[in-house]
Amino acid sequence: MLLTSHPGAASLSNEQHRALADITPVTLLPDIAVLQVTSQAAKEVVEKSLSEAIADGFATVTGQRCAIVVSVHTAAATPPQRGGAPTDATGGDHPASTSGTPAATGVTGAAAAGEEHSPVESGTDVTPETKPADAQAASTTDDAAAMNYPLTNLINEVNQAAASGDTAKETQLREKLAEAEAALASGKLPIVDFLKIYKRPPGAFADPAVEAEAATVTSPIRPQPGWEKPTNTTTEPPAADPHTPLTQPVPAPAAAAPSTAGARLPRETATRSGEGMLKPDDRYTFDTFVKGPSNNFTCAAAIAVAEQPATTYNPLFIYGPSGLGKTHLLRATGTYAKSLNPKLRIKYVSSEEFTNDYINSTRDDRQESFKRRYRELDILMVDDIQFLAGKELTQEEFFHTFNSLFLADKQIILTSDRGPKELTTLHDRLVTRFQQGLITDIQPPDLETRIAILSKKAQLEHIHVTRDVLEFIAQHFKSSIRELEGALIRVSAAASLNNEPLTVDSAKHALSHILPDEADMQITPEVILEVAAEYFNLSTDELTGPGRTKRVTHPRQLAMYLCRELTDLSLPSIGRAFGGRDHTTVMYADQKIREKLAANRDTLDEIQQLTQQIKQQARG
């Protein structure tokens, strides 16, 4: 992962080069990469200007996106150089690489790096399946690079004890962890060059066909609902004695097949006795789902399935255009089922996530573990099943997973943007199985339902708005709930920034450039990119390229936001239009612009001017 070999490396400053040379990799935990530097100045440079590139490098090599955590540790032993600095990959504006703080809670890599750790939150999942490494061997042999970080077992055990409520065991394990951290701080434990472990020879995939299919996966795992963390949840450690010495050696990997143990942390989901299942997320419930004639039947079917899994409608297939609440309904079903029976083993995944999980399990020779994770569930919910199109091996695996669950009388719930008969790019045997249960659709909401949706959104966002304003918005935005709610946020932000009351007139003015009144207008990402590039005096190549300066990132995020607002494209489709970025990058851009919109009048002006120019160009 040589960052200096990246096309943009020539533009690195001397300060950045010095900071790169100062970086020592410590360990990799789920969603977190822990790095060490020897000065506060180097830490600031890494966090401010290098973390995105480093995170992208990890994502390219490991297949997983992680947050970058930097620790200052002047007494740390420095491992010998093994071929240079880490390699970079092409860029993306990703949340995990900008904040510098991990999204995960509990005992994290920051604690492992010698810093004071935060308390473990019950239910937090950390699942590195690693064994303790020999400190002395790590400091004297090149094979030490393949040894696993010695604190990860303890971290895992602390989290499991906290999750099970065993306070005495948790206290005992925390004491052991503190001793280990002290040993690390004093240089008695090895610093692991885990980047070296990732360097696999060409053809290291278990099956060349899987490698080819991996190239079609355009994004890492999308964010999950709070009650389930499907790809990183806690699993029982592999028959490890909690009293095993921290310095137990690990066999070195065979030369012909480099080991990935400790490198790509396994994506495990517990499937026994409800382990690893998190609390329901109140954002996704049937109470917050607004019902109406367009979705009443589908909502009733989902409730019936949650109350009696696998006895009413199995599989349940829900379809409809993007932005009508299919994902909300899917998550609400899982949340309700979990509240009725906490022991249920429930997993929510997108089809992209299922594909990533399958590819990673094949790459790491963990197919049996993958099968257990999915085939020992009580309820499997797969969102956007249409995105399995073109992924032949993944479809084959999903077919067997479907059969295994169905024959075991386990519930399967699927969503798609079209009915089963229209999924012509999927295997026929999959489509016929989708058709053997209940097929139900969600239609665009009627006027009264749209008003009710706006009213619920205003209540949740604490927006004070009158009925006539809600009616005005509902009358002009009819096809997408996402578009409907976005219009409400826009008029609220405009009124707040202009310090004026939210009235129909102010709503008309705020929405004048985006009212969907031209049916024949064709707005595409290409049009949006061209207009945004001209507006900000950039080229479209700069907007879709790897550049990370503020001059480029803000216009790029604005263009992504406008693609969300002015088109019906899915997140992955928008990401592909911006140089092949993943869908989480688009989500992050949308979130950042919404934050700026609420606080910055300049951003609102930019959006209004860009929207007007985009519509003018789209009219031809």
Task: Please explain how this structure is put together.
With 620 residues, the protein is an alpha/beta fold. It folds into four domains: 3-197, no CATH class; 296-441, Rossmann fold; 447-511, Helicase, Ruva Protein, domain 3 (Orthogonal Bundle); 525-618, Chromosomal Replication Initiator Protein Dnaa, Chain: A. The chain contains 24 helices and eight strands. The protein has helices spanning 14-22, 40-62, 109-112, 135-140, 152-164, 167-185, 194-197, 208-214, 296-307, 326-340, 351-363, 367-375, 392-407, 428-434, 447-461, 467-476, 481-497, 504-511, 525-535, 540-544, 550-566, 571-577, 583-599, 601-618, and strands spanning 24-29, 32-37, 67-72, 316-319, 346-350, 379-383, 411-416, 438-441. The strands form two sheets. The chain has a five-stranded parallel beta sheet, sandwiched between helices. Strands 1-2-3 form a three-stranded mixed beta sheet. β1 (24-29) and β2 (32-37) form a beta hairpin. α21 (550-566) crosses α23. The protein is globular, with a radius of gyration of 25 Å. It starts with 13 loop residues before the first helix and ends with a helix. The model is unreliable at 4-10, 75-150 and 188-279 (pLDDT under 50).
How many individual helices?
A: 24
Number of DSSP E strands: 8
The secondary structure category is alpha/beta
Uncertain residue ranges: 4-10, 75-150, 188-279
How does the major sheet shape up? 5 strands, parallel
Output the radius of gyration: 25 Å
Domains (count): 4
> What general outline do the C-alpha atoms trace?
globular
Mean pLDDT: 70
What's the oligomerization state? single chain
The largest sheet has its strands arranged as: 5-6-7-4-8
The N- to C-terminal Cα distance equals 46 Å
Proportion of strand residues: 5-15%
| Estimated helix fraction | 40-55%
Domain AAA+ ATPase: 312-440
Domain Chromosomal replication initiator DnaA C-terminal: 524-593
InterPro entries: AAA+_ATPase, Chromosome_initiator_DnaA, Chromosome_initiator_DnaA-like, Chromosome_initiator_DnaA_CS, DnaA_C, DnaA_dom, P-loop_NTPase, Trp_repressor/repl_initiator
Keywords: ATP-binding, Cytoplasm, DNA replication, DNA-binding, Lipid-binding, Nucleotide-binding
